[in-house]
Amino acid sequence: MDWTAGAGREIAVIVPCLNEEAAIARVVKDFHAVLPGATVYVYDNMSTDRTMEVARAAGAVVRQVSHRGKGNVVRRMFSDVDADIYIMVDGDGTYDAGAAPAMVRRLVDENLDMVVGTRVDDDPEAYRAGHRFGNWLLTTLVTRLFGRTFTDMLTGYRVFSRRFVKAFPSLSGGFEIETEITVHTLELRLATAEMPTHYSARVEGSQSKLSTYRDGFRILKLILRLLMLEKPLALFGSFAGVFLLASIGFFIPVLVDYIATGLVPRFPTLIVSVALLTLSVLSLMTGIIQDNVTRGRQELKRLFYLAAGERADARVPLAGKEDTRRLARG
């Protein structure tokens, strides 16, 4: 593979890790092999095994994050690492390092903000049925709520532009970080692409940190929260419609009695109808106000995105950058 698509740009391979002693050395060496000019950063999430020592011995720059959760690790990586192109990959050895040069080339040639490595597997043990179904379900839900999305929303293999990384307001703490990245991309209508990448089973001795139900529930909660923040008019407008229909349903019998007798014998029903109508109006007004707030926040995100382009040291000669990389590796 020709890795020179990123020539003249500093490439950082950022690897979130937790107890990956069995696989991390291979991950570091594979990325060094296909991207010789890149720096591999391993961010350890308080592992209880020898992940840090093994990664350092393999040639990675190793740092530690004390707050548990992949989202916390990603937030720290995005904050700390300074580069032109970022390759984020899990440290479990399941992703194909050989696909990275092509992903980098596509990011550069098409001037994209993110290239997503869509998992393609031929081993049933690589991608469990429960995780596959959960990914499909969540991807379908996000598509319904936010529009066009990705085939594999929860993949851990992505290539980012500097502009994306430095303008991404990461808030997630755990594995829902991929969902947050996806929604952020859709919200700002950023330029993205997908590329199929081989996905293999974990190496012997490596165990998955995913919990199908717990992490799926956390991702679902994040989607609902993001819906309230990013699509408030749709959410509160739906509530307003439900309350309005309920109000009409309660009011019709009262109106029928009044037309027939000139009296309102169902006064409590009338009160409920008026209360529901009031809730409908309040919900609609809340949605309108929140929608205006959201638009202002989206404008700020866009401005931060536009301002996060060029690095402060972008014009430093490449020889100087190489010296910096050597110092970083110790």
Automatic annotation (TrEMBL):
Statement: the UniProt record of this protein carries the keyword Transmembrane: yes
Record keyword DNA-binding present: no
InterPro entries: Glyco_trans_2-like, Glycosyltransferase_2, Nucleotide-diphossugar_trans
Keywords of the record: Membrane, Transferase, Transmembrane, Transmembrane helix
Pfam family, one: Glycos_transf_2
Cited SUPFAM superfamilies: Nucleotide-diphospho-sugar transferases
Cited Gene3D superfamilies: Spore Coat Polysaccharide Biosynthesis Protein SpsA, Chain A
Superkingdom of origin organism: Bacteria
Residue ranges of every copy of the Glycosyltransferase 2-like domain listed in the record: 13-165
Transmembrane intervals: 233-255, 267-289
Single annotated GO MF: transferase activity
PANTHER family: RFBJ PROTEIN, UNDECAPRENYL-PHOSPHATE 4-DEOXY-4-FORMAMIDO-L-ARABINOSE TRANSFERASE-RELATED
Protein name: Glycosyl transferase
Organism the protein comes from: Zavarzinia aquatilis
